[in-house]
Amino acid sequence: MPELPEVEALAQFLRGRAVGRTLTRVEVAAISALKTFRPPPTALRGAVVTDVQRHGKWLDLVVDAPDEGPLHVVWHLSRAGWVRWYETLPERPARPGRSPLALRVGLDDGSGFDLTEAGTRKRLAVHVVADPALVPQIATLGVEPLSDAFTPAVLGELLARRNQQVKGLLRDQSTIAGIGNAYSDEILLVARTSPFAPTRSYDAARTAALHTAVRDVLAEAVATASGRPAAELKDAKRRGMRVHGRTGEACPGWDGSPCGDTVHEVSFADSSLQYCPTCQTGGRPLADRRMSRLLR
């Protein structure tokens, strides 16, 4: 699933290519992806792109439509969605079918992009709205972790709000926007903390270390992703992971100095997490989420 760094890079990529251009084609290929019906996608034809923004993991194409005024085309790529950019957009119209194509957007210079979604579980969501806050999932987003509003004090308040596992808090979009399964694994390695650590066990020092890890990991990932074409972002993300997706490999160490241990995994029904026992849990493996003791 694309997370804050990749979505930010996609926003930058589209901003550099689409702002100032006029929409000539907006074609829906997967009706299930379109979550709003008014205004219709046809109202976007002739609209001028004025900006591309990011809200957590949501992308927002801001346009000025001829009859509707300012509109926002906001979408969430979910687990298997992506943006496929074309310098020359295929001429064939987007049609419903078995292809991964969900939405096709064309610009007046012949370029454009597709929103695609692989697999059979279709969760990609597209909304056309006058204000992104009309999308409930955007209206309820938590603090942006790279903003000035995200301070150690704010993080401390979030940790103390209710007792839960710290990995769950990092992934909760209504608490902190933009962090998912992959970057929460990376953050917890750098912070040297167990993914199962209870949030109310964090004192000021551990809170400061977690805050620094959040900022550093995300800032580094954004810097790595920025400027890359959309087609390269997935591979760049995989290459940059220290522990996520690297079960059985040597741990590179929380500070870049190999610790001598290997990356371990805890599996769930539809996901998994990766961690290093030496760096994060005092050398004790977490055999299973349901059976492991909460490690502090």
TrEMBL record:
Reactions that this protein is recorded to catalyse: Hydrolysis of DNA containing ring-opened 7-methylguanine residues, releasing 2,6-diamino-4-hydroxy-5-(N-methyl)formamidopyrimidine
CDD domains: BaFpgNei_N_1 (cd08973)
Domain Formamidopyrimidine-DNA glycosylase catalytic: 2-124
GO biological process: base-excision repair
All copies of domain FPG-type, residue ranges: 242-281
Keyword rRNA-binding: no
GO terms assigned for molecular function: 8-oxo-7,8-dihydroguanine DNA N-glycosylase activity; class I DNA-(apurinic or apyrimidinic site) endonuclease activity; damaged DNA binding; zinc ion binding
E.C. number(s) listed in UniProt: 3.2.2.23, 4.2.99.18
Domain of life, per lineage: Bacteria
One Pfam family cited in the UniProt record for this chain: H2TH
Family annotation (InterPro entries): FPG_cat (IPR012319), FPG_N (IPR035937), H2TH_FPG (IPR015886), Ribosomal_uS13-like_H2TH (IPR010979), Znf_DNA_glyclase/AP_lyase (IPR000214)
Keywords, in A-Z order: DNA damage, DNA repair, DNA-binding, Glycosidase, Hydrolase, Lyase, Metal-binding, Multifunctional enzyme, Zinc, Zinc-finger
Family: Belongs to the FPG family.
Protein name per Swiss-Prot or TrEMBL: Formamidopyrimidine-DNA glycosylase
Protein's organism: Cellulomonas oligotrophica
Source lineage: Bacteria, Bacillati, Actinomycetota, Actinomycetes, Micrococcales
